[in-house]
Amino acid sequence: STMFLVGLSGGIASGKSTVVAVLRELGCAVIDADVIARQVVQPHSKAHQQILQHFGTEILLENGEINREALGNIIFSQPEKRRLLNSITHPEIMKEMLKQVLKYFVLGYHYVILDIPLLFETRGLTKFMKYTVLVYCDPPTQLARLMRRNGLGVAEAEARISSQLPLDEKRKWATHVIDNCGDRESTRRQVLRLHAHLEDSLHFLWARLAVGTAVAGLGGLVFLLIRHFIS
């Protein structure tokens, strides 16, 4: 059997977790990059040791875990520190994601949804996705939701939003957009349509793979990872 990957992303407070909840309910395999990002920096991990080496012990909590807020403040203001942190954590995140993709492949799933907050910022990943899905809401709605959810003032909420690529920009890259400006029911209907489309896609699974013209999706991802991270 063969398999494809679907990239899912959104913006801060655009309502991605609502969409993920419906997809999981429908029985989809969803891999959450944020959860993995937290796992790979747990104490005693390779990334944890490297982060300590470069950022010092003042970014630790009492229990030895990394204080994400303290680290976040450092990298928010210093791009070169952010690049350093990414170079430590990204290979570990990718390895763990690949492991989970392979697990679902072995379990017989035909596609896996990768929930990656910075999917459209890290353009390199999108080429492994058969589809990319953006959970969208218009800027005023996004701002209002973020202020309400995190109890932020306008300036603070705007600063957080502007640290990300604008949703209207990401929209151009996505193969599917779920507009989450309306009520939950409208969002749910759109997710059901997306799910039906993914299930339908199985019937046309990569004829070109059979012809051997391209190593796409999973094969490409495996190749990339082996080349980069296992060498």
UniProtKB/TrEMBL annotation:
Q: Which Pfam families match?
A: CoaE
Q: Which family does it belong to?
A: Belongs to the CoaE family.
Write down the InterPro entries for this protein, in alphabetical order: Depp_CoAkinase, P-loop_NTPase
* Cross-referenced PANTHER family: BIFUNCTIONAL COENZYME A SYNTHASE-RELATED, DEPHOSPHO-COA KINASE-RELATED
A Gene Ontology biological process term: coenzyme A biosynthetic process
What GO MF terms are annotated?
A: ATP binding; dephospho-CoA kinase activity
Membrane-spanning parts: 205-226
Q: Which HAMAP family does the entry mention?
A: Dephospho_CoA_kinase (MF_00376)
Q: Which UniProt keywords apply?
A: ATP-binding, Membrane, Nucleotide-binding, Transmembrane, Transmembrane helix
Descriptive protein name: Dephospho-CoA kinase domain-containing protein
Which GO terms of the cellular component aspect does the record hold?
A: cytoplasm
In terms of domain of life, where is this protein from? Eukaryota
- What NCBIfam families has UniProt attached to this entry? dephospho-CoA kinase
Report the source organism: Tychaedon coryphoeus
